[in-house]
Amino acid sequence: MSVKDALREQRIETPSWAYGNSGTRFKVFAQQGVPRTPYEKIDDAAVVHKLTGVAPTVALHIPWDRVDDFGKLAEYAQDRGIALGAINSNVFQDDDYKLGSVCHPDPLVRRKAIGHLLECVDIMDQTGSRDLKLWFADGLNYPGQDNVRARQDRLADALRETYARLGSDQRMLLEYKLFEPAFYATDVPDWGTAYAHCEQLGDRAQVVIDTGHHAPGTNIEFIVAFLLRAGKLGAFDFNSRFYADDDLMAGAADPFQLFRIMHEIVLADALKPAAGIAFMLDQCHNLEPKIPAIIRSVLNVQEATAKALLVDHSALDAAQRAGDVLEANAALMDAYNTDVRPLLRELREDMGLDPDPMGAYRRSGYAERIVAERVGGDAAGWGA
């Protein structure tokens, strides 16, 4: 398959919450023209796909994107040329979850949390979504606060019950996070913990790698390679970090890391949609305009992927077998240092798209139109 053909098949899911107002722990800076409803988020996601050609699905977050009729919401998305993607649960914002959700010491709170996870599977049935994405804020701030082993048992019980509810064509994607909001011990703090739970559940439980959820200096591409080898890499949440879970535009902080990650994906022949890896964005745009920031992230992932596809694998393999460290490294660096923007412009023209998606958005007048039409929008989940 040619580089262009591989890029043409690439799919990148955008997150509904990135289109609405979001921010830091200190302030949400509201922007004009942000969506007021899930339907308007779909409108914005459809614009991103129309301009990039590779973002045909939008992930939902429940309850932030709750509607009376999810089947109708799915039809609305289909009419606009996209589909609903992963369903993301939320068991971290209610007061009941102060001491955790599925790991909480109170069985009534755990039942409430599990009930929400099962509700999310019900929503998947209505939307036709394949993936249930789980992230838990559960953890401890102080030694002795709770029994660490017992919390793992509670987590396993909740995952087992939710997994049993999935349909035969549905998957559970388990995300991990090093810390925050718990600072002493997090119940799913790393890929190993997520992998262990998924391995116990079955083939349709897989790990999500959020590129912002690691300690500084973590070799994320090693994690990618390991999980690919084990058949347990289900999805990515692409973003950038400088310090912690910054949720900045993909490729903004360390584009070389993004290239190295995509190189492992290409090596494993796991880029095409049939491989089953969901390439998603997980970002919160506090300062930059929402839609252009998402477009830029999509373009950055495309550029990293294009460079990964240009690696001369024959030369790389030969250098590795010969123990030639410099030539092996050069095979990667030659591809990374290639300017792939002309290639991507040609690809977009071949696909009948404007070769400059950012410029096309500016020229479209869409930003000015939604500012005029939408008043009082803040529907991201954080509020203003």
Mean residue pLDDT: 96
Helix content: 40-55%
What is the radius of gyration? 21 Å
Total beta strand runs: 10
Stretches where pLDDT is under 50 for at least 5 consecutive residues are none
Number of helices: 14
From the helix content, strand content and strand pairing, which structural class follows?
alpha/beta
Please state how the strands of the largest beta sheet are arranged side by side: 1-2-3-4-6-8-9-10
Report strand %.
5-15%
Shape: globular
The CATH superfamily name is: Divalent-metal-dependent TIM barrel enzymes
Which sequence of SSEs, written as H and E, runs from N to C? HEHEHEHEEHEEHEHEHEHHHHHH
CATH class descriptor: Alpha Beta
Keywords: Isomerase, Manganese, Metal-binding
GO molecular function, one term: isomerase activity
Organism: Lentzea pudingi
InterPro entries: L-rhamnose_isomerase, Rhamnose_iso-rel, Xyl_isomerase-like_sf
Characterise the protein shown here.
With 384 residues, this protein is α/β, with parallel strands linked by helices. The chain has one domain (10-309, 340-373): Divalent-metal-dependent TIM barrel enzymes (TIM Barrel), CATH 3.20.20. Helices cover 45% and strands 11% of the residues. The chain is built from 14 helices and 10 strands. It has an 8-stranded parallel beta sheet with strand order 1-2-3-4-6-8-9-10, covered by helices on one side. Strand 2, helix 3 and strand 3 (83-88) form a beta-alpha-beta unit. Helix 1 runs antiparallel to helix 9 and helix 10 (313-322) packs antiparallel against helix 11 (325-336). The chain is globular and about 55 Å long. The relative contact order is 0.15. The model has no long low-confidence stretch (mean pLDDT 96).
